[in-house]
Structures are given as structure tokens and as C-alpha cells.
Design goal:
Strand content: 25-35%
Shape: elongated
Mean pLDDT: 78
Radius of gyration: 29 Å
Number of helices: 2
Helix content: 40-55%
Number of strands: 8
Low-confidence stretches: 1-20
Largest sheet: 4 strands, antiparallel
Distance between the termini: 111 Å
Order of helices and strands: HEEEEEEEEH
Structural class: alpha+beta
Length: about 210
């Protein structure tokens, strides 16, 4: 019974952790525009960003992560997807910015997840009971991190499937349009040849 209770407790904590600490978003960044998001965290907190460009142009965007002091933690140009994790060096507000300023007219659809780990426990005890509790908590966090990774991979595969489906539909529509164009050209040429031959024989008959 105690084992069942502990399992239910672990699953409940993991689910709550996933709901509270992993934030998924889908945004549209217009041409010549920039969208920024902010997270307030404590020092040494684990942070992560996973993103994928779903639609727009060449499926690329600029991304910048800056710390509370304005220092650039990560900067990427014309990236289509990425996974970036780090530990917050200082406490404060961290900024994630997606920039589409290099695009002249095409908006970009960005799907991304912001993951914020638990703040480090500064009041951890030294006795065996607290040590066992910390071990259980660490196991729960590891399980939660694994589930987040699986969730991110599933979302990544869904986005890739969506992109490939859009490319296939675009290719099929172009093939159909080109076939219609070719058929139209052949029809016009056939009618033109029939008309020319008809006029040619009419001239010969008059002569």
C-alpha cells in the first residue's frame, strides 16, 4: 500500500512539474519584427529552450538569449531548429528573443518550449531522512526531465510531419498546375494547326 501511495505521489509530482515548468508556445513573427519572452529565475537554475520553425520563407530565424545584466548567453542566426540548455549564472530576468528582421515580407511561425528547472535548495539537511527525501526528489526530477524530452521529441516530429506535408502539397499543386498549362498549350497548338491546315486547303481550292 505504501509502495502504491509512493508511486501515485511520484506520478502526481511529475505531472504537476510538467504543467508548471514546461511552457509551450506557438507564435507568428512578422517580417522586420521581433518577439521576446521573459523568465525570472534564481542563480544556478537549469533552463532550456527548444524551438522549431514551422512555416515561412526558408524556415529560418535569428535567436538571442540574454541574461539580467544584458550579457548575451546564446546567439544564433538563420536557425531552423535547436535545443539549448544552460544554468542561470545569476538571479534575475532572462530574455528569449526571436527576430525576423532579416525577412522582407514573409512572417515565420515558431513553435518553442521554455523549460525552467527547480531552484537549488539552499537549506538541504544532512541527516539520513532528508538525504533519502532528496534522493527521491532527484529521481522524480530525472523522470520529469525524461518525460519532457519525450514530449519535445513528439512535438518535433509533429512539426516535421507538418512541414513535409505542406511541402508535398505544394509540390503536388505545382505539378497539377504545370500539367494543366502543358495541356492548354497542346490544345492551343492543335487548334492552331487545324485552323492553319484548313486555311491552307481553302487557298489551294480557290487557286
Amino acid at each position: 500500500m505504501d509502495c502504491l501511495y509512493r508511486s501515485l505521489l511520484i506520478y502526481s509530482v511529475v505531472i504537476i512539474s510538467l504543467l508548471n515548468r514546461a511552457n509551450g508556445y506557438t507564435i507568428t513573427v512578422d517580417a522586420h519584427a521581433e518577439e521576446c519572452f521573459y523568465e525570472n529565475v534564481e542563480a544556478d537554475t537549469k533552463m532550456g529552450l527548444t524551438f522549431e520553425i514551422a512555416e515561412g520563407g526558408f524556415l529560418d530565424i535569428d535567436i538571442t538569449i540574454t541574461g539580467p545584466d544584458g550579457a548575451v548567453i546564446h546567439k544564433g542566426e538563420r536557425e531552423s531548429s535547436g535545443i539549448y540548455t544552460f544554468s542561470a549564472p545569476t538571479s534575475g530576468r532572462y530574455t528569449y528573443c526571436f527576430s525576423n528582421k532579416m525577412s522582407t515580407m514573409t512572417p515565420k511561425v515558431v513553435m518553442f518550449n521554455l523549460e525552467i528547472g527547480e531552484a537549488p535548495n539552499k537549506n538541504a539537511g544532512e541527516n539520513d531522512e532528508e538525504a533519502n527525501h532528496n534522493n527521491l526528489e532527484n529521481m522524480i526530477k530525472e523522470l520529469g526531465a525524461t518525460l519532457k524530452t519525450v514530449k519535445n521529441e513528439q512535438e518535433y516530429m509533429q512539426v516535421r510531419d507538418r512541414i513535409h506535408r505542406a511541402i508535398n502539397e505544394s509540390t503536388n499543386s505545382r505539378v497539377v498546375m504545370w500539367s494543366i498549362f502543358e495541356a492548354s498549350v497542346l490544345l492551343v497548338m492543335t487548334l492552331g494547326q487545324v485552323y492553319y491546315l484548313k486555311r491552307f486547303f481553302e487557298v489551294q481550292r480557290v487557286v
